[in-house]
Amino acid sequence: GRAPGGGRQGSGRAPGGPQRRAQGGRPTRSAPYSRGKVSGDDHLANTDVQTVAASDNPVLKVKADSKPNAVAGAICNVVRESATGQPPAVVATGPAAINQAMKAMAIARKYLLEEETGAVDFLVQPRFEEDIRQSSRVCFVLSKLPRPLPREPSEDDLASKEKTDFHKLAGAMAQRIRDGEKVACTTKGPVPVLIAVKAIATANTYLTDDGKDVKFTVSIVDLENPEIRDATSTYMHFALVVK
C-alpha cells in the first residue's frame, strides 16, 4: 500500500480561498528512481552515486534549468545510500534554482515514501552561506528518517507571497512553535518559495535560545487558488518539524 504523506495531494484550499478538494495526479515511476549509477547526471559531483553518498561531502547541485525529475532521482539514490552521520546536501543559488530544488525534493520524498521495501522520509534544513538579507545561495541539508512524517495542508497554514517580509513570516512561525502549535507554509512561485525558505531559516535562528532546531518536510499539493474562481493550482507545502 501507499505510505501516507507522500507526493501530490488534494487537501482543500490555499490560505485565503474557499475550501475545495482537488484531484492530484500520480506520476509513473521511471528509471531515474532506481538504485545504482545516475549516468550523465551533472547534478552529482561524481556520477557514482554510492561514492557521493559515502563521501564526506555528498552534495547535489541544482541550477535554474535543472529538471526536477532528474534531480529527484539523484536525491532518492543519495538519501538511500547515505551513511549515518554523513547527511547529503542540495545546493542552489537564486529563486529559480531554489524552486527547482524544492520541486525535486518533493518528488523524491514522494517516491521514497512509496518504497516497496519500506518507506523512507527525510527532513530538510536550509543554511544560507552569506547574509540572508542579500543572499539567495542556500545549502539544504537532508536528514534521513526511518519512518514517514505525514502532514496534510490546513486552512490555518501560513502563506508566502511575492511581497511577504520574510522576517515577519519567520516571527509568526517562531511564535506558533513557542505556543506548541503545528506550523506549515503554503506557497508557489520562485520568489515566494525563496521567501518561505528564508523565513524557515530565520525562524530557526529566532529559536536558538529556546533550544529548538527547526527543519521541514516538503510536498507538492493541489489546492484551490483563491485568486481564480473554481480553479486549482499546484503549491509547495512546507511542514515545519521541531527537534
UniProtKB/TrEMBL annotation:
Which InterPro entries does the record match to this protein? Alba-like_dom_sf, SpoVS
Annotated region (Disordered) at 1-43
Pfam families documented for this protein: SpoVS (PF04232)
Q: Where is the composition biased (Gly residues)?
A: 1-15
Single GO MF annotation:
nucleic acid binding
- Compositionally biased, Low complexity: which spans? 16-26
Q: Which PANTHER family match?
A: STAGE V SPORULATION PROTEIN S (PTHR35331:SF1)
**What protein does this entry describe?**
Uncharacterized protein
Species of the source = Haptolina brevifila
